[in-house]
Amino acid sequence: MEQYIGLDVSMKETAISIRQGGKRTWRGKCLSDPQALAQVIRKRAPDACRVVFETGPLSVWFYHALVAEGLPVICIDARHAKAALDMAANKTDANDADGLAHLAEVGFYREVRVKGFDSMLIRTAVAARRQLVKMRVQMSNQIRGVMKTFGLVVPKGAGSVFDRNVRSLLEDEDSLARIVLPMLRAWGDIRLRVAELCKQLAAMVREDQRCRLLTSVPGVGVVTATAFVAAVEDPANFKNSRSVGAWVGLTTKRYQSGEVDYDGHISRRGDKHLRSLLYDAAGVILNRITDTSTLRVWALGLQQRLGYKRAAVALARKLAVIMHTMLKTGELFDPQAGATVAA
Questions:
Q1: 343, pLDDT greater than 50
Q2: DSSP state of 110
Q3: Structural domain total, the chain
C-alpha cells in the first residue's frame, strides 16, 4: 500500500510523519541529513509514494540530495502549507510533519520548482554583489555623516573621486583622520570586492549565450541578464511568457467578494531583487535612453497618461515578458517591433 511522508525540516533535526491508508503509521525524528533521512524512509516506508517538505533555507540541498537517493521528493510552497498547518491546535514540529504528510496524501499542495545548483551559484553571486554594494553605500554615507558633524562637507563624487575628496579634507584633521581613515580603507576594500564580483558576472555573461541574448534589450545589463536567466532557468518552466510577469510579482492583485470587485497594487510575489532590477531597467529606458524604439514610445505614452511609477511598473512587466520570449525563441531584441527578430 502506498505511503506518504511529511518532513518538517530544521537546522539540526527533521520531524518525520508517515501515513498509510488514511492513518498515521509512524512518526519520529532524525538528523537533518539527507542520507540519514533516506535510510529512515527506506526502513519505515519502503513503498513511499510522496515525500513532502516546505520551502526553506535547506530546501535546495535537501531536494537534490534526496532525489539522488531515489526518493519521490516534492517541495511545496510554504505559504500554501501554512494555511493548512495552522489548523492544528498546537504548533509543534511533529504536528507540522503530520500536516505535511496529510497534504501529501490528499494531494492538496502546490509544488515548487527547485532550482539547480548552477542557477543557485549565479543567484548567490548576484546576491553577494547586491549585499556588498549596499554595504559600500552605507559606509560612504557614514563617512559623509561623520565628517559633516565637524564641518567637513565631502563634495559629490564616487569611487576614487570620493577617496581623494575625503583624504584631502582630512589633511589637517589628525584626530578625526584616526577615526575616518579606517572606515575609508574598509570602504575601499568593499569597493574592490564589488569589482571582483562584477568581473565574475561579466565572465558568466560571455560564456552563456542566453545572457548575451538578453543584453541586447535596452536597459538590461550584466546583472539583470544573469539574474533573469538564473531565475527562469528553462523557458519551458512557464506555460506562456505572460505568466512571467505574474510570477515576478508585477501584476495587480484582485479582490472579489459578492458585489465587491477591485484591483489593488502589484502582488510583489516572487523574487524581490529580480523585480527591482526589472524596474531599474524600465527607469533606464524612460530616463536615459533617447532612441525611438516602439517599446520606449509605448512606455512614454503610458507615462503621460498614468504617471512615471505606473508606467515603469508596466514597462518592467513587459520587459519580463519580452525577455522570456527571447529565451524561448533565441531571437534578438528588435527596437522597431518592440519584440524580437531572428538573430
A1: no
A2: -
A3: 3
Helix (H, G, I), strand (E, B) or coil at 169: helix
Residues 130 and 71 in one domain: no
**Range of the structural domain that residue 58 is part of:** 3-106
Give the model confidence (pLDDT) of 120-157 as tens digits. 989 999 999 999 999 999 999 999 999 999 999 999 88
- Based on the fold, state whether residues 100 and 172 are members of the same structural domain: no
Q: Using alpha carbons, select from 43, 52, 69, 67 the residue that is nearest to residue 14.
A: 52
Half-sphere exposure of residue 117: CA atoms within 13 angstroms, side-chain side: 5
340 Cβ contact list (under 8 Å, min separation 6): 322, 325, 326, 329, 331, 332, 333, 334
Residue 259, classed as helix, strand or coil, is coil
Indicate the average pLDDT of the chain. Answer: 90
Contacts of 287 (CB under 8 A, 6+ apart): none
Task: Cite the DSSP H helix spans in 45-116.
Answer: 59-68, 78-85, 93-106
Question: Cell numbers of 318, please?
Answer: 513587459
Q: pLDDT-based confidence at 50, cuts 50/70/90?
A: very high
pLDDT band at 307 (very low <50, low <70, confident <90, very high): very high
CB 222 within 8 A of CB 210: no
- Do 178 and 255 reside in the same domain of the chain? no
Block residue for cell numbers 535596452: 218
Chain centroid to Cα 303, Å, comes to 28
End position of a domain, from candidates 106, 126, 142: 106
Q: pLDDT tens digit string along 109-126?
A: 888 889 888 889 899 999
Q: How many other C-beta atoms lie within 10 A of the C-beta of residue 105?
A: 22
User: How far apart are the C-alpha atoms of 343 and 338, rounded to whole Å?
Assistant: 15
Distances (CA, A) of 320 to 149, 224, 225, 324, 335: 45, 11, 11, 6, 16
Residue appearing with cell numbers 520531524: 15
